[in-house]
Amino acid sequence: MKYALFLGCTVPVRGMNYELSARKVAERVGLEFVEDERFSCCGFPVKAVDVETSLLMSARNLAIAEEHGVHLCTLCSACNSTLAEANMILKEDDELREIVNEQLDGMRYEGTIEVKHFARILYEDIGIETLKDFITNPLKGFAFAPHYGCHYLKPSEAYGGFDDPEDPKSLDELIKVTGADSISYEEWDLCCGGGILGIKE
């Protein structure tokens, strides 16, 4: 199984441990990553200011993945949401897609790929039952609290019915497959604050 790995801006700087873990897990379960140095920002930081520029930035990254003929794997939930939504919009709007393609400077977005978060790939494509076979050191006695946040499952229409954005289970089940307990907590569905990080850090 092969995916283009999209790291975006934040993961290489603030989530290097997350990237390393994802690479190790991918290697263990037989997931191959295709990498391309041309990938750039997904467009999320400018989305609230300039939707057209954000859409163009996303389309460029999607077009790069299409050149490799593989679907796109994201590690960052904001990247996932931005790219998946752009993918949905451009697939559905032929006229807008052509306008965007005219601005891609020789590249073309055709709408032939899907965008998936790494956790979704583990959950859907590898599968919980298969993942159980890879657990060699169960995390029994540990408890983890998943944070689904704003972007992992929203906008829900961009994710094709994956999980329930109001009552999600996928991260909980991925935690449990490791042998650890998944615990719930009050206000689990609140925003982490990342969306305003650039305004006042």
Question: Quick gist of this model?
Answer:
The protein has 201 residues and is an alpha/beta fold. It is built from eight helices and six strands, in the order βααβααβααβαβαβ. β5 (143-144), α8 and β6 (181-182) form a beta-alpha-beta unit.
Low-confidence stretches: none
The main sheet comes to: 4 strands, parallel
The top-level CATH class is: Mainly Alpha
Strand order of the largest sheet: 2-1-3-4
Strand % is: 5-15%
Q: What is the average of the pLDDT values?
A: 92
How far is it from the N-terminal to the C-terminal residue, by CA?
Answer: 39 Å
What pattern of helices and strands is seen along the backbone? EHHEHHEHHEHEHE
Helix content: 40-55%
Number of domains: 1
CATH fold label:
Glutathione S-transferase Yfyf (Class Pi), Chain A, domain 2
Number of helices: 8
What is the overall shape? globular
Pfam family, one: CCG
Keywords: Oxidoreductase
Domain Cysteine-rich: 3-83, 146-196
InterPro entries: Cys_rich_dom (IPR004017), HdrB/HdrD_reductase (IPR051278)
What does this protein structure show overall?
This protein has 201 residues and is α/β, with parallel strands linked by helices. The chain has a single domain (2-196), classed as Glutathione S-transferase Yfyf (Class Pi), Chain A, domain 2 (Up-down Bundle). Helix content is 44%, strand content 9%. The chain has 8 helices and 6 strands; from the N terminus they run E-H-H-E-H-H-E-H-H-E-H-E-H-E. It has helices spanning 11-14, 16-29, 44-47, 51-68, 77-92, 94-102, 118-132, 170-177, and strands at 2-6, 32-34, 71-74, 115-117, 143-144, 181-182. It has a 4-stranded parallel β-sheet, with helices on both faces. A two-stranded parallel sheet has the order 5-6. Helix 8 links the parallel strand 5 and strand 6 (181-182). Helix 7 packs across helix 8. The longest helix has 18 residues, at 51-68. The termini are far apart. The relative contact order is 0.13. Residues 3-83, 146-196 form the Cysteine-rich domain. Keywords: Oxidoreductase. This is CoB--CoM heterodisulfide reductase subunit B.
